[in-house]
Amino acid sequence: MPIAYLSIGSNLGDRYGFLKKAIAALQDAGIEIVRCSSVYETIPVGYIEQPNFLNAVLEVQTNYSPHQLLDIIHAVERDLGRQRNIRWGPRTIDIDILLYDEIYVSDEDLVIPHPEMLKRAFVLVPLGEIRPDIVLNKKPVAYYIDLLKEQGIKKLKNLPLL
Q1: Looking at per-residue confidence, does 31 or 53 come out higher?
Q2: Which bin fits 22, alpha (ψ -120 to 50), beta or left (φ > 0)?
Q3: 109 tagged catalytic
Q4: Of the four listed, 9, 47, 153, 160, which is most buried by Cβ atoms within 10 Å?
């Protein structure tokens, strides 16, 4: 069964509650959560006049194709009140496909690997937590984490998602 890595984030309302609801909705759709990182609080990227995010990364197994998985993710986001008004703006939930097996996708709807992931500590730090052995562009994830140094990311304790 294919393995994918998803980032999840929220910065509106009950941020922790939205992360948990998103995971439950993914599971209800038949997506198996294999591993889940800790929850991290992060400063916004891009549009910065908004609340801090809670972020995590999931390792999942799924029989869905990358585009089918994207459709499910969009349905979960819609069901949890996601509105796409401002690029990189505040949101109840944001779910991105980071990686999907060894598959590369590049079309108008989806790009895998995620094109911005190597620039984002809020993605790489939790990914490195659950899969420190993962290699991206022939380099270990720790290499990219070191390049980002401090991007305002803080690991939160006692907030289990599973």
Answers
A1: 31
A2: alpha
A3: no
A4: 9
- Please state the separation of Cα 156 from the chain's center in Å: 16
Supply the pLDDT for residue 84.
Answer: 67
The single residue listed with the structure tokens 């599971």 is 27
- Give yes or no: 96 in active site: yes
**Residue located via tokens 């590369």:** 104
Average pLDDT over every residue of 56-81 = 95
- Whether the bond between 113 and the residue before it is cis, its omega within 30 degrees of 0, is yes
Place of tokens 């929220």: 10
* Catalytic residue list contains 94: yes
Token duo for residue 10: 């929220």
Mean pLDDT of the chain: 91
CB-neighbour burial class of residue 63 (10 A; exposed 0-12, middle 13-18, buried 19+): exposed
Q: Which of 15, 96, 107, 120 is catalytic?
A: 96
- In whole angstroms, what is the distance from residue 155 CA to residue 162 CA? 16
φ, ψ of residue 146 in degrees (nearest 5): -60, -35
Is position 91 annotated as part of the catalytic site? Answer: yes
pLDDT at 13 over 70: yes
Count H helices, E strands: the chain? Answer: 4, 10
DSSP letter, residue 46: S
